[in-house]
Design a protein that fits this description.
This protein is of the alpha/beta class and 495 residues long. It has 13 helices and 21 strands. Strand 17 and strand 18 form a beta hairpin. It is globular, with a radius of gyration of 23 Å.
């Protein structure tokens, strides 16, 4: 799948323009590793991140306005992130935080800092390491206050020291769901139950995971630690169970959970009700692929790795010359994989900008590639243990709001599909689903599932709606700054 690309804008002369060998987009594990690798080879590197502090979601740090006096209670991921951030800040990498990348045309990266500071960075090579976001799961009641994503709950507890609720249900699937539940409990939150949509792992599945564990001892150790924490804190784990509905008046008060089959379809008559005031949803992650699609990179659909993922070669190069992709925005694989992919991408960028020979880059990348092979073997065993079920798209009913930005219900989407061509563009035109603040990040997958059902196609055969800049919301002052000139009104209001 190769998306159509918008034409480049007319750029006014007053917009600040700089030139760099390499621009890295994303300040998480992959982005920082890529920036360090390219910079250490002599390339001029600019690292851009929209947050106020580097680290991304995995290595999430506190806002620079806060001072951490005791790091022992922050966890291993915080300390790993702190060390990598320190290395980046001590290097020659130019770091631009609080900076939003809102468009890419060719090798030109357009960013906005603050309210109206628009920059254009001309790069020889672009590395996109934009990370991922929580997989949206629409079901009746999912818009109630108190229903949040696992990432949101983690941020509340980890950064702001605020518990998402007094009685928290953790619902999801896979290792991230386990880790979030254990982490919430570590920070003092009251997690009453963890529901896992997949079946309890079989002995054969566990043996496959152990067979793939050499070289992945840290990941296996982390997983065992999460399970031990849940057992120690007596948090029950209910397998083959999903949240089918949330109920309440002004906020969530009850969670309706139900047994599911191996494809995550609800088994009628198996519902139970839990009294809760918070539901954290952790059904995996989706790649932040807006920029790779905007660049015109070829993509393939892989449900297990989050949906549409860009094609890459062994050097992390995409199908578009000069554009490399690393980390979870190229398919969900975890922080350890992201670091090694970022390192390889940084070496490739150094080769592409003539700062490193191919032979030297190949030698330097060999260790990272060995680690990547082991990590992918381990990930494949995990994926077999936690397959994503298609029943995830069958939870919503006709009255469920799918597009939260434009308040479009599932019934309205299905009505539109009976009146327009069965594709995401038609639904968008008829209902405005996908035109809101998030630009389809939340509703896009459910719309694609409905299009697939209406047309009799698999969801991977449904092209997503096109991406147009700005890919992130911009202040109106920044849009005004992009205008070539301030024009007089056609009609004067003066007497």
């Amino acid at each position: 799948m190769t998306p159509d690309r918008p034409s480049a804008p007319r750029v006014p002369t007053h917009v600040r323009s700089t030139q760099r060998d390499v621009v890295v987009i994303g300040g998480g594990p992959a982005g920082m590793a890529a920036a360090l690798a390219a910079s250490q080879c002599g390339a001029q590197v600019t690292l851009v991140d929209e947050r106020s502090a580097l680290g991304g979601q995995v290595y999430k740090q506190f806002n620079p306005a806060f001072q951490v006096t005791d790091e022992t209670g922050q966890g291993a991921q915080y300390r790993r992130g702190r060390d990598m951030i320190a290395a980046v800040l001590a290097s020659a990498v130019e770091v631009l935080t609080d900076t939003v990348v809102w468009g890419i045309w060719g090798r030109e990266v357009f960013v906005c800092r603050g309210e109206e500071e628009v920059h254009r960075i001309e790069a020889l090579t672009i590395i996109i390491a934009a990370g991922a976001y929580d997989r949206p799961v629409p079901f009746p009641g999912w818009t109630l206050p108190g229903v949040i994503t696992a990432g949101g709950g983690q941020s509340l507890a980890k950064v702001f020291r605020v518990a998402p609720g007094h009685r928290i249900l953790m619902a999801g699937s896979g290792p991230l769901s386990l880790s979030f539940a254990a982490e919430l409990k570590h920070y003092g939150a009251n997690v009453i139950m963890l529901t896992e949509a997949c079946r309890r792992p079989t002995v054969a599945a566990i043996w496959r995971l152990l067979w793939a564990s050499p070289g992945n001892a840290a990941s296996l150790r982390d997983g065992l630690a999460y399970l031990t924490a849940l057992k120690t804190h007596r948090i029950p784990v209910r397998w083959s169970t999903i949240v089918s509905r949330a109920e309440g008046r002004d906020r969530v008060e009850r969670a309706v959970i139900a047994n599911v089959d191996e494809r995550w379809h609800v088994i009628p008559g198996s519902e139970d009700v839990l009294d809760v005031d918070a539901i954290c949803l952790g059904y995996g992650l989706c790649p932040s692929n807006e920029l790779t699609r905007l660049c015109g990179c070829a993509h393939n659909y892989d449900e297990q790795h989050g949906g549409w993922v860009p094609w890459r070669d062994e050097w992390m190069r995409s199908s578009v010359p000069g554009v490399l992709v690393a980390g979870d925005c190229a398919g969900i694989s975890g922080a350890a994989t992201a670091v090694d992919e970022g390192y390889v991408a940084g070496l490739a960028a150094a080769v592409d900008t003539t700062h490193l020979s191919v032979a030297r880059a190949t030698a330097l990348a060999e260790r990272a590639r060995r680690k990547l092979r082991r990590q992918r073997r381990f990930r494949a065993a995990l994926d077999a243990m936690y397959p994503v079920g298609t029943g995830l798209y069958d939870l919503a009913d006709e009255s469920t709001v799918i597009c939260r930005c434009e308040e479009v219900t599932l019934g309205e989407i299905r009505t539109a599909l009976r009146q327009c061509p069965p594709d995401a563009h038609g639904v968008k035109a008829f209902t405005r689903a996908g035109m809101g603040f998030c630009q389809g990040r939340v509703c896009g997958r459910q719309v694609a599932a409905e299009v697939a059902a209406a047309s009799g196609l698999p969801i991977g055969a449904v092209s997503p709606s096109s991406v147009r800049p700005p890919v992130k919301p911009l202040p109106i002052a920044a849009v005004a700054a992009e205008m070539p000139e301030r024009r007089r009104p056609i009609v004067s209001l003066e007497p």
